[in-house]
Each structure stands twice: as C-alpha cells, then as structure tokens.
From TrEMBL, chain A:
Residues of the THIF-type NAD/FAD binding fold domain: 9-517
Gene Ontology cellular-component terms listed: cytoplasm; nucleus
Main location per the UniProt record: nucleus
Record's protein name: NEDD8-activating enzyme E1 regulatory subunit
Family annotation (InterPro entries): APP-BP1, ThiF/MoeB/HesA, ThiF_NAD_FAD-bd, Ubiquitin-activating_enz
GO function term, MF aspect, one: nucleotide binding
GO BP field: protein neddylation
Biological function: Regulatory subunit of the dimeric E1 enzyme. E1 activates RUB1/NEDD8 by first adenylating its C-terminal glycine residue with ATP, thereafter linking this residue to the side chain of the catalytic cysteine, yielding a RUB1-ECR1 thioester and free AMP. E1 finally transfers RUB1 to the catalytic cysteine of RCE1.
Phylogenetic classification of the source organism: Eukaryota, Viridiplantae, Streptophyta, Embryophyta, Tracheophyta
Species assigned in the record: Dendrobium nobile
A Pfam family hit: ThiF
Signal peptide positions on this chain: none
From TrEMBL, chain B:
Domain of life according to the entry: Eukaryota
Record's keyword annotation contains Aminoacyl-tRNA synthetase: no
GO biological process, any: protein neddylation
Domain E2 binding residues, every copy: 344-435
Organism per entry: Dendrobium nobile (Orchid)
Family under the similarity heading: Belongs to the ubiquitin-activating E1 family. UBA3 subfamily.
SUPFAM superfamilies membership: Activating enzymes of the ubiquitin-like proteins
Protein name, as recorded: NEDD8-activating enzyme E1 catalytic subunit
Amino acid sequence: MAAESKTKYDRQLRIWGDQGQTELEKASVCLLNCGPTGSEALKNLVLGGVGSITVVDGTKVEKHDLGNNFLLDEVSLGQSKAKCVCAFLQELNDAVKAKFVEESPEALIERNPSFFSPFTLVIATQLLEISLLKLDKICRQSNVMLLVARSYGLTGLVRICLKEHDVVESKPEHFVDDLRLHNPWPELKEFAKTMDLNVTDPVVHKHIPYIVILIHVAEKWADGHGGCLPTTRQEKKEFKDLIKGYMINMDEENYKEAIESSYKVSLPHGISSQLRQIINDNNAAEVNSASPDFWILVASLKEFIENEGAGEPPLEGSIPDMTSLTEYYISLQRIYQAKFESDCLAIEHRVRTILKRIGRDPDSISRAFIKNFCKNTRKLTVCRYRPLEDELISPAISELQKYMTDEDFSFSVSFYILLRAVDRFTANYNRFPGLFDNEMEEDISRLKTIAVGVLSDSGLHGSTLAEDLINEMCRYGGAEIHPVAAFIGGVASQEAIKLITKQFVPLNGTLVFNGIDQKSQVLAV
Amino acid sequence: MANSFSEPARWRDLDKLLARCGNIVGPGFEPSPQLRQEIGEFARVLVVGAGGLGCELLKDLALSGFPNIDVIDMDTIEISNLNRQFLFRLQDVGKSKAEVAAKRVMERVSGVNITPHFCRIEEKEIDFYNDFNIIVLGLDSIEARSYINSVACSFLEYDSDDNPIPETIKPMVDGGTEGFKGHARVILPGMTPCFECNIWLFPPQIKFPLCTLAETPRTPAHCIEYAHLIKWDEAHSGKTFEPDDPQHMQWVYTEAVKRAELFGIAGVTYSLTQGVVKNIIPAIASTNAIISASCALEALKIVSGCSKTLSNYMTYNGVEGTHIKVTEFVREKDCLVCGPGTRIDLDTSTTVSQFIEILGEHPKLLLSKPSITHRGNNIYMQSPPILEEMTRSNLQQPLYYLMGKVRKDTVHVSGMAENNGKKSSSLRKLCVVFKGIAAADVATQMDTAGNF
Ligand SMILES: [Zn+2]
C-alpha cells in the first residue's frame, strides 16, 4: 500500500488491518436507488476505499431531493440522480472506480437479472417487498451478497440476505485467553517446575508470572482432591485462599493477578457448543472439490480435535500481558508459540491430505490462511439467513408472539409489521399511505385493514397494533428524513464492511430502527 | 427570509414530520406548515468539534432544517482524517477544520449559514455559549466534554424550592465513537444526568507502571512508552516531546526498536508507536455516521417537539452483530456541576481573597486561581490583565457586600481543578449562604433578585 494511503486509512487499518483493506479494495458494490439512505451508505464505503461502486437510479433530481440528500445540490436539478450522486462520491475518493446506471432498479430486477452477478455486494434501498423477493432469489442464485436498507419517517430497517457467511476473524471484544491451565502440556509443566513459589528473593517472588503460579497451585490442589480441579463456589474460594497463602506481601501484583484469573483453571475442557455445531455441520462432513476453503479447514479441525487435539482445539498461542520478569514472560511466550506452531502443522498436514483426497491441488490453501484459521478456531462464526420468501410463507410465529408481548420490542415489531403493510398498501394504491393531507383519515383506516391482514398472515391472529403507530406511519407519508436515512445508511455500510472484510460478526436478524425513543431492536424473524 | 431555505418543495419530506400532528410527540409540539420556518428563525445550534462526528453533524443538522449553525474547533486538517471526515479533501490539509467544514456545507446546502470558530473552546467567553438554543457535541476528549458540560450547566438556575427553572435549561446532545462502538446521549441539565453525573462511564486511561517500563518490559507498548516517557527526557534535556513532529516520533520508534531487541520482544512497528504515544482511537466513517445521525435527530426532536426524545443514553455496538441499547441513567443528587451548587457557608465579613482561599481548600472543589462572577458581574477576574486590575480592589472587600447583601445566591467560579489526577480548567457553581442573616429577609431578597 502506498504511504499516502497508509496514512489516509490509518484509523481504519487499526480496526481491520491490511487484509481487511485489501478485501475492501477488491470489492465491487452496487447501490439500488440513490436517495439519502443509499447515498449515505455508499458515501461511508467510498471514504473507506471500496474498490468500485455502481449507482443505479432511474429518476431525475427534484427540489425535494435537495432537502434530504447532501450528495445533490442546486446544479443537479433536473439531471440524472445516479449521475450526480456518482460524481460527488468520486470527488470523495479518487481511488474508487465510480460508475452509474440510469435505470430503475425494479426494471433491472425484472428484465436483466444477470446484471447483478458481477458484484460482491448489492445494497438495495427503498425497494418494496415485491421487488426484494425477486432480488433475493437472483442474488442467492449468483452468490452475491444482498443488504436491504429502508428509511421511512422515523423508522426503517436493515437486513442481510445471503445463504451463508463464514467468519474466521470474528474479533470478539471479550474472550477468555486459551491458556490450558486446566490441562497444561508437558513443555509448559516442565517450565513451571523450574520455578519455586517459595523462592526467597522477594524481587523474583513478585515477578513469577501468574500462569506459573496457577499451574503450581492447581497441581497442589489436584493432589489433595483426587486429581480434580475446583468446581464449586466453595472450592473456588478455597483455591483462591490457597494462592493467597503463597503471598509474602499483600501488594504482589502477580499473585493478585493469579487470584483474579483463578477461574481459568476451572474452565470446561474441550470445545464450546458453538464450535461443536460448526464441526458437526454437514458442510464439514462431506467436503468435496466444490467445498469452500473454510469448510475444508473445518473438516481438518474436526479431525484434529478427534485425534491430536484429544478433544481440544489447536492452541491460540498468544498470552496476555502479566506481571513478570521479562525473561520469564518471553520464555512463556515461546512455549505457547511453539505449541501453536506444532498444532498448526498437524492441521496443515490434514488440510493437505484432504485436498489431495478430493482432487484439489494440496497446496491450494496457503499456510498463512491455515495459521490464521488456527489462531481463531474458538471464534469461528457461521451466519445463515433464510430466504425472504420463507420468512413470508412460514414466519417465525413464536418469536413474533414473544416480541408482541414484550414491552421492549413492541414498537420495533409493530414497525416491522407496519412497514410490510405499507408495502402492500403501496402495491395496491401506487402511492405511500398518508402521501396527501386530504386523504389522511381514509389512509389510516386502509392501512389498519392491511396491517390486520399482515398480522394474520404472520400467524398473529387477534394481535393488535397500537393506533398511535398506525397514525404515525401515515403521518410519515413515505418521508425520507435525512438523519434517519443517515442512520440507516450508516448501519448498512457498517454491515457491508463486515461482510466484505469477512471480519467481525454481521447483523443476525432484521434491525428495526425506532426513531421515536431510539429503542431499536434486532428481530430474529 | 425569502431564500431557498424556506422553499416548501425542498422540504417536502421534513415537513411531513413538522407540519402534521401525531400522538407520539414531545411536550409543546405545535405542528404547522410554518414550524420549520419558525425554527429557522429562532433556533441557533452550536456544534462543538468539526472532526469525524462534527462533519457528519453539520450535514445532518443542515438537512434537518437548522439554517443557523455555529461550529467551533481548534484543529487543523490531517491526512488521516480523510477516511471519514468527508467534508475535507487532500488539498485542505493544514487548514482549519471548522472553516473548511462550514464552507463545504454552505456550498452544498443553499440557504444554510454556518459560522466557524477556529479556536479553543476555553477561549470563548462563557456568554458566547448562552446564545445557542442547543449545543451538540462531537468530541473525542473527556476534558472538552467536561468543560462544555460545566458551561451549559452554569446557565441553569434553580427556584427557591431547588427546582430547575425551565427557561435556563441549555439542552446538550453528546456523541462519541470508538471503532465499531459509539454512544449518543441527551443532557437536559437539571432534568437528566449531566456529563459529570455519570463521569464513571468514561474510565481514565490505564497507564503502565514506570517500574515495568524501566525494569521488566514485556510488550512492544512497554518498549515504546519507555522510549517516549523515560529515554526522551534523558536524551533531550528540557526539550518537550512533540507527538506531531515526525522526527520526534521516528526517534521514539528507533529507541523502542532498540529496547525491544535488547529484551527479545517482537512487534514494535512505527504504526504501533504512533498509536501508543498519541493514544490513537480507531475511527471509521460508518460509526461516526450512525452516532451523528442519532444526535442530529435528537436535536431536531428537542427543538421542534416532533417526537419523543431519547431518555437518555443510547449505545451502539456493531462488533458482534448489532446491539442498540437505551439506558435511562439517573442524576447524581449532589452533582457539583448540574445541582443547585456546592453549598458554601460564609460570614458576612468574609473578603473575596479569604473566599478564594476557601475555594482552594474546599475538599470537593480544590479550585486554584479562580475567577468569580455573580449574576454576570465580575467579582474578581484572573485574566485578562486589564480585568484583573479592574477587579483587584474587590479582593479586600467582603463578598456579602459585593453580592448586594443577599442571604443566599449562586456564584460561578472558574479556575483550575483536579480531574482524574489532571489539572484542567473547570467551571463550578456555588450556592453561597451567609450566616446570621434572618430568614425573614429572604422575601425581600427574592424580589430584588427578580429585577435582574
Ligand atoms: Zn450533574
């Protein structure tokens, strides 16, 4: 990367690294409809340096566009909206390849489905259900990721539509280090033995790393408890007291750290239920030449856990900072690193064998990729999203019912139902409810009738929506309020970044924005 | 005002919210086709900060129907701003953020008027801040937030029953981001917790113990901080380290690499050196956009009443899925900043200089070099020199006399106070009560007070 780009992107490289940036720069994103919601979403991606963008919109710029879209100005009036938005986006970052197509997204979906196949990601904004259903099918068929974003008055939604998204670097904020204190391997045990907790030199005593302290105390505990480690609350307390007994002075940071981390010796052996689910996934059971690299690695991981790993995943190999003499700490780092390397090698061997077996070039998966996978096995995440059509045909009734009766969710789930009702209304009347002041009363009762229909189609017979919210939807009259659009567009771009960089965990469900009191919720429907 | 800002066609969408009645709205919402224009005429918004949040806020507020905006920021544009501060271009590097941001938004949204202030927030007179109907904060420092909060809270007055007087409430909306996370909050001083009430939400940065840096370094950051905090002073007697000087940074990096090699520690890079030394917070366009949009929407709702407002703290976290949570924090009853004021009992004979001594020793205040004002009158000012000279003679006068012989009243003092172990400028509100004044006098005092 050029020095100037390094500096320009410095603040984001600290989040997703060179690897993430490379993915972003390879990506090609298509935006459908460049109103404020879409324009804002794309703006954030262009600033970050996405590879290329294609803006699709068939409308001309009108006066009302200037009141809610920053990417358009006086000069744009009467011109192609796609062209004007595209020109401003290009001004933001000349490294991005910006294109526009002056055509209605609905027409493209209808007549030219292959238009979408070259893109990495399609961001569909302000489209009605009827078009989204078709677009979802098209994108799934051609393995293009789809993000749906909608702003409507003080509400809106963002959702992801794709078959499967596998994340190696999910980068969770809080994750317990894999130190294997409950089950130290021989080299680690050996190293711990070289240190004596009763050493007389006070400087050495207060610089024994807590890993070593815990291994010693755990061994002592196990000797007195038939080989078992503390499990009950009482035992854990006694274990802490046992550690305390070694302190010669109450301000020894290393012992304090050992007490704070003492729960790590009692961590359950083996793998988490989340990881178990992944290694038992059908995709890992039957890998073939068409399997994605991710699943080949999962298949190798599964074999490793069942063989060399003896029930454990490969060691991650990194240790947190802790009070210690430099040399002790560096030695520990090396011991953990060496175990990581040897686990990696075992997995790599299995990967190569599997590749050979399924008729692929055994070297077609790089060592760097395998290593990165091994560093993250406990954090692997698989996200799947069911087709939009399924959601409409077989709604998650029990979830919906739960939301309807939960005060925290009632606004969000009502907005979800009402947004669908608005789409049906619009399909019927060819305009948004509440568009005209003089038809407000009629529109309120029409929307209510339609909403009752959506409720019963969703299996929520007898449920009612608050009249106030039905009024609100008509009050909005399809308005795209700039800050709401900027919020929805912002969330869409955030999810786009996660999908494109294949880092962090994307939104799992439908985010319903609640601009009334900001209590937005993610619905699993 | 017949400019393009008042054209109804342009504001078709926003007017749906402002001109139509609804049942879920704020108190005092009076929808009408004129509401937007009325807001345009009376509402003045101040945006504090023209960085990642500030750029977004200016755009969002201009497109939320606020034609009169001021923006204050002392910073100049750097290349590393360009990945998110979308109002700036490469050729703007080195120029004032406030000035360029104001100009760009005015170019694109016709009819909007943005006044930039290229200076430190402390440089402005306190009264400057009182001219705004709402203050929106797009800052990344705790100190700056704390300062603006104390200024906004200083305008707050309480009635004799210690209830906040509504006209004196200066609403604030505050946003903050870090990586994929952020918050937006609404502060109505006297009604909802102020920044200081929940200061614990912003824990101070953890520093490495010096003995770790000097004797037992283990991580690359330890090596970098050794070079930055210890080695620099040893090698450059008296010369202060300038984090923005690339030569200084290069020196620290080189020294950190040497130290890391000496101890067998891997991982010191130039980028990490910058990150550790400047305490760089990762920042991206999308999070800033989300948080700013929330803040601007709240500003619109507070000023227009077109919907309920956030009560009172929203967090967004996009690291694992998307989590948005609203928490209703409560006020700290004895908050020094937004409460009726720290009560100080004085004798009627206490002079201003004795009062200054009391402020320095008061355990809750520990305020040094205070300037003192009472109902807009300068009792004693530390600066500028001309004001100091004019007010110096007051030092030997009894405060009771200078305050117009009231039994109890609010006094504002600004000076240096310790916050999280760091000295910073602080504004404090005091409730001064003179001992030995009969309560019967109070009624007459209240009448006099009402004449101000
Ligand atoms: Zn407070």
